[in-house]
């Protein structure tokens, strides 16, 4: 089975989400702080961070179909950039987050270069894994900026003079940023840009023969992925207020990959579902120390056995995606 | 003929080598607007290499390829496609994960305006461009009777429908030159007849220059204005179908006997 392949006998398998309905979701989420305490709100905020992580990663792995595993590196680069800009340079919060997105995008561009040279599949996988480990070495050794292996403390987030002291305050900032980036990503993927990504994944020669500059779009996919995931890293830094090298290693990468695969490749709603499940599951299982990892592993295996196309196929089966069908596919 | 004074596609002295192998040797070829030129020859004669050279997928070692007088050899494939040279692929070039409609839209890629920011922000200009492209693609799908399949993934179509959808995708952008690489493979006899009609219409009605690689000789004889014959990378004949039928060198090369 090729990456991202969905069941072809399912007539709804190839639907695309439609934003007009999905806009209701963030509006409904505005009410979440009414029912949370500081701890549960923290979990919700973390889920938002992982929604961005999954959506950014999916652009490269799902839509462009490249086995590139630099996602934890983009996440770490974003987190460290925001932390450094806030800690050393005392930058305003929004500028630091934007800066993290830009640096993440540049890292994505860098990682796209070997892909352009024709390095694909397992070779690209190993190369990007090595890049991730290299970045961990950088976090530890560039200690003038990163304060080394102890990690660095992120100052209290201040937005336009207001200290975001509580998780609920952070939530509104996160919700706005995540909604904007998810909407922008959805817009891109539903347009000629997204079609170019999929065309490159399916048949790169045919894509070029259609007039699609394949190199440019490959760079764009990686850069956008880096931007989104780098921003997620910045939000993580603001949320946890502590960044350290071990937070961005292989385990973190496996979690990112799990979100994308469990949710459903090349599907935005799938990434959201994957992020929700894989962020909530460890918290719900926290009361069972020792069994947590075991149960999560079993959960992942069970989901993939029952739903090989990811959680999104549940929506497909329930025909809920009819609600989200792309405008041009309606009769 | 006035068209011959300004040929759409001109190949002068074009050679392509792969290591020690000469895949194309000093090939001259002209295709005018509204003309169907078939390229035939035994397997390995260099037909697909010729298409790859024209569309920029293999570099040429020698010679010159021009579209409407403008040199196109050395350009990137996507630039050549954007200039109006579109092609199909022998093994099928549809993108299986895109729907039929999205495949046609992808064929309109360079004609669909919109930059990254206007698209990401969902600006009205980007939405308008998308709507216009969708309208054009739907119209074409209806003409080719593929309208009902628009929302299906391309990989779910029958072989014949895939061939038609691929041709549709190449002509969506109204290219002046079309390269069809064995479009009749896997088509039933009635669909071959339909394909012949489509090719003739593209040339006569829309003025598209068509270069056609095809083994189905009755189709070639039916639709071509001229037939160029390749053998071991060299062009050994280039003439009207009736004359090719009687050409001794062609019979020897193609049929293996005199």
What labels describe this entry?
heterodimer, A: 331 residues, mainly alpha, 4 strands, 67% helix, 2% strand, globular, disordered N terminus, disordered C terminus, B: 258 residues, alpha/beta, six-stranded mixed beta sheet, four-stranded antiparallel beta sheet, 11 helices, 10 strands
Question: How is this structure best described in words?
Answer:
The complex is a heterodimer of chains A (331) and B (258). In chain A, 67% of the residues lie in helices and 2% in strands. With 331 residues, chain A is mostly helical. Chain A has a domain at 35-257. A two-stranded antiparallel sheet of chain A has the order 1-4. Chain A has a two-stranded antiparallel ribbon with strand order 2-3. The radius of gyration of chain A is 19 Å and the shape is globular. Chain A starts with 18 loop residues before the first helix and ends in a 14-residue tail after the last helix. Chain B is α/β, with parallel strands linked by helices and 258 residues long. Chain B contains eleven helices and ten strands. The mean pLDDT of chain B is 91. The interface between A and B is large, with 36 and 47 residues.
